[in-house]
């Protein structure tokens, strides 16, 4: 067995190896034993980091929420005085992440991953991503750009729109899945403009 994985990096290696296995075999085909074999460690080694497959799936989902949070933070930092641009760039960053990692995106909102029944780490990742998006929307409300709706409702509306568009693109549903990056940006701009008119109207 491979002894090169120490306690600190086997966990990350398992998550990274799980994503392509998830793509190839789906949730049913993903297994901790299979990952152990692929990484050349004992079959018991993964269980020191994930007590079962559900916890592993949650760890994979966390990477998606972290990506969403990072997209929001990056947009906020790059366009501090332009809440409209912040919201657009945060959304496009998430869309391009989903385009590369559709399996992770599907896990993020999978019915079986209920925050009320999940690990504290997943709950924290969801809260952090939501807070980052809420901060962008609060910035827009502060500048009197958006209707005085509850911020939570605007977060839900924005994320539902962006996530839905991302899944349509990756799944080829109603949209050509071979769109170029520029074409995706143009499509995102059209959808964003409609969303913004509703939020500002």
TrEMBL record:
SUPFAM superfamilies according to UniProt: Homeodomain-like, Tetracyclin repressor-like, C-terminal domain
Keywords from the named record: DNA-binding
One GO molecular-function entry: transcription cis-regulatory region binding
InterPro entries: Homeodomain-like_sf, HTH-type_TetR-like_transc_reg, HTH_TetR, Tet_transcr_reg_TetR-rel_C_sf
Entry keyword annotation includes DNA-binding: yes
Alphabetized PROSITE patterns for the sequence: HTH_TETR_2 (PS50977)
Any one Pfam family match given in the protein's UniProt record, by short name: TetR_N
Domain HTH tetR-type: 8-68
Protein name, entry field: Transcriptional regulator, AcrR family
Organism encoding this protein: hydrothermal vent metagenome
Phylogenetic placement of the source organism: unclassified sequences, metagenomes, ecological metagenomes
């Amino acid at each position: 067995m491979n002894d090169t994985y120490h306690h600190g990096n086997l966990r990350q290696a398992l998550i990274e190896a799980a994503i392509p296995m998830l793509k190839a075999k789906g949730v049913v085909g993903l297994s901790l034993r299979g990952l152990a074999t692929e990484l050349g460690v004992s079959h018991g080694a993964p269980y020191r980091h994930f007590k079962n497959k559900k916890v592993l799936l949650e760890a994979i989902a966390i990477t998606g929420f972290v990506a969403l949070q990072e997209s929001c933070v990056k947009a906020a930092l790059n366009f501090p005085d332009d809440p409209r641009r912040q919201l657009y760039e945060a959304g496009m960053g998430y869309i391009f992440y989903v385009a590369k990692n559709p399996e992770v995106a599907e896990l993020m909102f999978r019915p079986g991953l209920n925050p009320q029944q999940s690990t504290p780490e997943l709950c924290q990742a969801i809260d952090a991503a939501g807070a980052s998006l809420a901060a962008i929307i609060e910035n827009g409300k502060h500048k009197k750009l958006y209707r005085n709706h509850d911020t939570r409702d605007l977060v839900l509306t924005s994320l539902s729109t962006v996530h839905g568009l991302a899944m349509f693109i990756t799944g080829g549903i109603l949209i050509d899945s071979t769109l170029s990056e520029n074409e995706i940006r143009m499509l995102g701009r059209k959808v964003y403009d409609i969303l913004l008119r509703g939020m500002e109207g």
